[in-house]
Design goal:
It contains seven helices and four strands. It is of the alpha+beta class. The N terminus and C terminus are likely disordered.
Length: 236
């Protein structure tokens, strides 16, 4: 009798046929809580059953929000105005990136050009050596055009700013007009940065060879150098 009572309580009759008299969690719409027909669940206390059911409901709600409600809201929020705004921001970012790349290219090209120009500076590291280098360069160019310099003197070193200076000097000589033209071209095309800052030409009537008396002021670019008094001050 005890066995029959347990079988009837579990929904099993004699003869092996099973009869489930308990409500189904799917078909029973009147049940507010999901029924878990397991022996382990039945062994739990009422408080544990409520806690387990609440956890299951929380998980189901999280899955619904994460994979259902939130994607739907995101899709509905993608209005034409929002899409147009994002497209504008993307175009702006692409333009800024292209401008940055262009600026880098220009900066690199400017650096290479500056390096090439600095190769034409005087190589001397002191004012006295710079004046001597200037006289040597001008004398070599004059000799290459068949011109003999009458006098040569250093004038001054002028600050140009940005770490550069101009070494200037004056030369006087006599030559023909074609020699003067060739000499000026040689100065302009020299590997060193030379410039004519002053020119005086006179043609004496008593000269039967047609030679001109020329006075030139020539400048040569160099890096800014410390004067002798500054070097002495640093030494002391």
């Amino acid at each position: 009798m005890a066995v029959d009572s347990r079988l009837r309580r579990n929904g099993v009759q004699r003869g092996g046929s099973a009869i489930f008299n308990r409500p189904s969690p799917i078909t029973d719409r009147k049940s507010a809580i999901v029924f878990l027909p397991t022996p382990m669940f039945e062994k739990l206390s009422r408080r544990d059953r409520i806690a387990l059911t609440a956890a299951a409901v929380a998980v189901a709600l999280f899955m619904l929000l994460n994979f259902g409600v939130f994607p739907l809201l995101e899709h509905l929020g993608s209005s034409p105005e929002v899409v147009q705004q994002k497209e504008g921001e993307l175009r702006r970012d692409m333009r800024l990136l292209a401008e940055t790349q262009l600026e880098r290219t220009h900066f690199s090209a400017a650096g290479e050009r500056l390096k090439g120009l600095e190769a034409g500076l005087l190589e001397s590291s002191s004012p006295s050596l710079a004046n001597a280098e200037w006289q040597r360069l001008v004398g070599q160019l004059a000799d290459s055009k068949g011109i003999e310099l009458g006098s040569s003197e250093a004038l001054r070193i002028q600050e140009l700013g940005a770490g550069y200076s101009l070494v200037t000097g004056r030369v006087q000589f006599r030559c023909r007009l074609d020699q003067l033209v060739d000499f000026l071209v040689a100065l302009a095309t020299s590997p060193k940065l030379l410039s004519v800052t002053g020119l005086t030409v006179s043609a004496p009537q008593s000269d039967t060879q047609g030679k001109l008396i020329v006075q030139l002021t020539i400048g040569a670019a160099t890096r800014t150098m410390k004067q002798a008094k500054d070097e002495a001050a640093e030494t002391h």
